[in-house]
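User: quick one, sequence for these tokens?
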């Protein structure tokens, strides 16, 4: 018995449409997954970069504080050396200028 392709056409068209829609959904899902993974990776990289920036800034602040402490300590040490009975006066610190 011969098959009637004309009577079968609407079902075959419907099957083809369903197949196209299923493949489109699969492709859309893959694109969504890849895009989501890229966004998550970018967010993680940004968080890592911000964390490193905070660490570098904290290190720089600590370095500046250490330098400032060293300068202040050196200044205090320079001003307090010598005879403890002599007061710190401009004449004591700059005798040539005061004598002139």
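Assistant:
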């Amino acid at each position: 018995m011969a098959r009637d392709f004309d009577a079968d056409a609407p079902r075959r068209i419907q099957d083809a449409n369903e197949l196209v829609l299923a493949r489109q959904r699969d492709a859309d899902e893959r694109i969504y997954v890849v895009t989501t993974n890229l966004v998550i990776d970018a967010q993680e990289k940004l968080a890592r970069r911000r964390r490193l920036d905070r660490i570098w800034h904290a290190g720089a602040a600590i370095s500046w504080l250490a330098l400032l402490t060293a300068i202040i300590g050196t200044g205090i040490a320079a001003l307090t050396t010598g005879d403890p009975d002599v007061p710190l006066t401009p004449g004591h610190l700059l005798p040539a200028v005061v004598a002139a």
